[in-house]
Amino acid sequence: MTLLPIMYESFLSSISAKQWKRIGLKRRAGVCTPLFSVYSKKSIGIGELPDLKLLIDWCKSVGMSIVQLLPLNDTGSNFVPYDAQSGFALEPMYLCLNRLYKTSVRAFRNEIDSIRNSFPTGGARINYKIKAAKLGLLRKIYRKNITGLPSAFNRYIKRNQFWLRDYALFKAIQGEQGGTKWEEWPPELKERKREVLDCFEQEHKEKIRFHMWLQWQLFEQFQDVRKYARSKKVFLMGDLPFLPSRDSADVWSRPYDFKLELSSGAPPDAYFFKGQRWGMPPCHWERMAAQSYDYLTQRLKYAENFYDLLRADHVVGLFRLWSIPLSEPLENGGLNGFFDPSDENLWEERGRQLLSTMVQNTKTLISAEDLGTVPECSFRVLEEFAVPGVDVQRWMRDSEAAYAFKEPDAYRKNSMATISTHDTASFNAWWEYEAGTVYGPLFKRKCEALGIQFEEMKSKLFDLECSAHDRLRWKEEINTSEILARILNRAESDVWELVNLYRYSYNEREKFWNYLGLSEPCEEKSSPNLARIALEKVSSATSIFSIQLLQDWLTLTGAFKDQDSWSVRINFPGILNDQNWSLIMPISLEEMKTLKANRMMRVLNEKTNRV
């Protein structure tokens, strides 16, 4: 199938036309990864900004032209990229100590080597103690170089007055307050009494400037990476978190721009029967509008320094956001929340206004994470604005055709096609543990609501020996919905929700196997060859971009053959554990550049017209 740029010409008649002209109407392939997941032989404890040059080289060699990064904002001490302490500031632990801009580190070589030895790269999970170790040494380096700071530092401070002073002040106060949340600070600091803040600034001037210096160093190192990417004709895609953390410099310095009496979240759904409560306060859009949305547009302007494209997280929240009163007990999760605005007739107008403000105030091409429960108006506006959404292969199903997988030409042209996301199982784990199963807690809740004894039915319906991780695999003999209803002792019409779950999931592997055009017997274990065929299929989609997680690309190499595929995951949403946001690739960036499978990846991208 030959796909020409003419397919996408309508993008040039949209509000995003100037951005599309900048990057070109070209089908592109790319890779998505958190920076903490990759490392080089020069890294100290964690992936560092200069390491991205090696990733860019690898992308270029395999025919990819987009590097998509998860958020790189300062996360404080919780290390959750989407719950950052600033919508502007970058994470200091990603600094390369040996490449500080116009700063001598000669006197600290031994200490740098000591940190390197204490935090070797290449483990299975990140040791986040690296942040404190790096910051401790960076403070020493700053104090050593404090008298000779170049004029470029002061220019950086002046250019970023909108956010930098408040951020640095927040970090310095937080340090003096033992890391406590700003809402627990003494009233005069919490409420930003001007005379108290002025006094604090005078007493802690260098501590404040240290945080400014860190951001300047991050700016310079990232700018260098951006220039390198441009020289290789590879685009960098950033990730714009939907909201800053409640405990952030942004909320502390601009409390009037946020609804502090509420928490953002998500309503109850198939996987979270209590919904979700994220904790970040919703934006007060009406107040932001009175200020010409300066907070939003300034975030975009700063991101322009580093990125050519930006993924707007939870873009459906621009149309309406599930909001939970803080008075609700935490154990209720997202229950008893409401959509804001509550009037559905206002959703499209709200989303259109905010998204157009974003597009018109940045040079970067905006793309959208539009997964989850999506209002219909969101699809219309994204298509009109030529803002690419996300089409995930495993969820592209036709409910009118027994939930068959949709062919590649049914994908949205203005989309990023992918086989998995940072919030889902990798392709291997989906195939081995999820395809052909139902989510156990969901099925149990549905049974209980219908007065059906779940424990009694579980062994009758599911092959428990082949089920794991709360995923229940259907017995082969439950091969019609009539048999399911008979075992449940109900009419199909009375248990239609359970029947729907069955029709979606039963024989799912076989449906996907046939969708890929495979004729041999269906395999239970994934393999590099199966992953390659799935990747080629998704890459052949009409979507203008095909961007895959790095771990899915590396599946082609057999790099994860010794690991349980379930553990090869970036994040399990709604679960707090030390496995989230800590995954490390099993090979270094240098090793990636020499992989035999690189040729296979390039051929795949060439075959699907993405090089």
Question: How do the helices and strands line up, and which of them pair or pack?
Answer:
Elements: H1 17-23, E1 28-33, H2 52-61, E2 66-69, H3 109-118, H4 129-145, H5 151-159, H6 164-176, H7 187-190, H8 194-203, H9 205-231, E3 235-240, H10 249-253, E4 262-266, E5 276-277, H11 285-290, H12 294-303, E6 309-312, E7 321-325, E8 338-340, H13 347-360, E9 365-368, H14 376-385, E10 389-392, E11 397-398, E12 404-405, E13 415-418, H15 427-434, E14 437-439, H16 440-449, H17 454-461, E15 471-473, H18 481-488, H19 496-505, H20 508-515, H21 528-539, E16 545-549, H22 550-554, H23 589-592, H24 597-607
Parallel strand pairs: 1-2, 1-16, 2-3, 3-6, 6-9, 10-13, 13-16
Antiparallel strand pairs: 4-5, 4-7, 7-8, 11-12, 14-15
Helix pairs in contact: 6-9, 13-14, 21-24
